[in-house]
Amino acid sequence: MSRIEEIKQYFFVLWELTKRELKRKYARSFFGILWSSIYPLFRMILVVLLFSTIFDKGIDRYPAYYFVGFLMYEFFITATSNSLTTLKDNRDLLIKSKLPRELLVLSRVLTAFVNFLLGCIPFALVLVVYDAHFSFYYAYVPIILILFVAFTAGISYMLSIWYVFRRDARNIWMNFTMIMRFFIALFYHITWVSKGVQAFIRNNPIYGFIYTCRNYLVYGEKVETFYLWEIGIWTGVIFVLGFLIFRKYENEVVIHL
Amino acid sequence: MMEKLYKDFKQNMFAIHQLTERDKKHENAQTFLGELWEILNPLIMTVVMVLVFGKMFDSDSIKNYPLFVLTGVTLYNLFNQGTTACLGALVGNKVLLTKTRLNRNIYVEQKIIYAIRNFVFSLFIYFIYVLMIHQYPSKKWLLVIVDLVFLITLTIGVGKILAVMNVFFADIVYFYRVFTVFLFYGSAIFFDSERLASSIKGIFIINPIYDVVYIAREIILNNGVVAINYWIVLFVYASGFFIAGDIVYKRYSDEVVANL
Fold it and tell me: Are A243 and A157 in contact (CB under 8 A)?
């Protein structure tokens, strides 16, 4: 089989697995796919109502400001927390087939990404309504998003292995992401917190991703090269590290399932 | 008569104890770290909130921001943990429900008692902090106990309804999680509702959790008197949900068993 054939097959299987996940996800839910679009909008309205009055300092185009970060972080949480249990959930498939195992993790990340894209539909509307600055920076956004998916996949690889060894990994991760939510300057401006916390947020790669996308999409501004390096290096390190860890343990893990 | 009552009580307590022990052994359930987290959660959340919002609300009307937040989170947590645990009260006890004749209230009571236990541990932390900042308890604090009784009554009522709903409509777990996020914002845990635009401010009182938090804060932080309407609203919610929960639970528990 030629190399190209192989790659084609790889992506075919990945897509089939993703479709399976999507079907499963929406088969159980009452509101189905619609929910993916509506829920972010609800959250935005709530936050805007509350915070536009509490924080009188104000942020330019606040609903759009919030929406970018919310969608991206929600993608991160959904992808990682769903990937966490992948190996356990697919026990039979793992034992009985010779499927490259990382595909199972990737398919969950992709499922979350499809969900994210659905959330982008109302977001586009918000961008128009709040008069976002449309510029050539929009062309960079897909690149940043691909890096973000790779970063998320790297974390997901590690988590899926971790969960096999620690049964409370899910709880720990849920709580961790809940706390992290406050350290990515999601609904406030970074300059409103103290210097120490500011430094912490700046060095948080998730903030880097959100900040960059936000600047490109909402304000049409370039970002400091610091953030581009931050994004690039973190993505590279996490993705490679995650993949290596996954490869190292994927066989051992099957015994523990 | 008394003896029989006492025997029933002892039996029920034994069952509750066994259920809790089983919960701990269950695969996805609590580990030591998880339990510790539930107890420390209010403290950790307070540290986070103070770090993030401390500077923003620095020069504001809030007298003691850490205590302000800690009070809110501790109370909110009792409700959140209690009701969320109740979601699994019936669904998680399928075998026992169909095969034993245990008093069915036990399944909900066990979850609530567990939440209260964690809450009591959190209270220790709370009082250590209170003493550290020399905020000594006064007689008025007895009113907070009444406040707590209402909160627990409300938690039981809502918990029972959720337990039944989860049997017929499994999506409720997901929706309830979303709801609790909204509730967290809507209970003014980390901001002062006084600062909000007057059009929104008035809405908060219809949220019973906000009332619980507000009453406790007024008494503990400001040593103040709480307007009677807060008490009335809270009382109506607590008794309403308690009675409704009881009726729903009794009425549907047979159907529930058939459905499981």
Answer: yes
Q: Is residue B6 part of a domain?
A: no
* Cβ–Cβ gap A50/B185 under 8 Å: yes
Q: Is residue B18 situated within a structural domain?
A: no
Q: Which of A25, A48, A53, A162 has the most B C-beta neighbours within 10 Å, making it the best mutation to test the interface with B?
A: A53
Q: Per the CB < 8 Å rule, is A194 touching B27?
A: no
Give pLDDT tens digits for B2-42: 787 788 778 788 887 887 777 766 644 556 777 788 788 88
> Residue B230 falls within a domain, yes or no?
yes
Q: What percent of chain B shows pLDDT beyond 90?
A: 38
CB B166 within 8 A of CB B251: no
The count of structural domains within chain A is 1
Contact with chain A for residue B182, Cβ under 8 A: yes
Q: What is the pLDDT of residues B76-85, one digit of tens each?
A: 999 999 999 9
pLDDT digits (tens, 9 = 90+) for B188-245: 888 888 777 777 777 888 999 999 999 999 999 888 888 899 999 999 999 999 999 9
Contact A154, A240 (CB under 8 A): yes
Please tell me which residue, B180 or A26, carries the higher pLDDT value.
B180
User: Which residues constitute the domain of residue A205?
Assistant: 3-256
Contact yes or no for A168 and B34 at CB 8 A: yes
Query: B49 to chain A: nearest residue by CA?
Result: A182
Mean pLDDT of chain A, nearest integer: 88
To probe the interface with A, which of B51, B184, B199 has the most A CB atoms within 10 Å? Answer: B51
What is the per-residue pLDDT for A144?
96
The answer to whether the CB atoms of A194 and B34 lie below 8 A apart is no
Instruction: Please state the domain count of chain B.
Output: 1
Say whether pLDDT at B112 is over 70: yes
Structural domain including B224 reads 27-259
Q: Determine, for residues B28 and A167 on separate chains, whether the beta-carbon distance falls below 8 Å.
A: yes
Q: Taking residues B241-259, report their average pLDDT.
A: 86
Q: What integer is the mean pLDDT of A32-47?
A: 76
Whether A55 contacts chain B with CB within 8 A: yes
Chain A CB contacts of B178 under 8 Å are 39
A140 min Cα distance to partner chain B (Å): 31
Read off the amino acid at residue B105.
N
pLDDT, position A3: 81
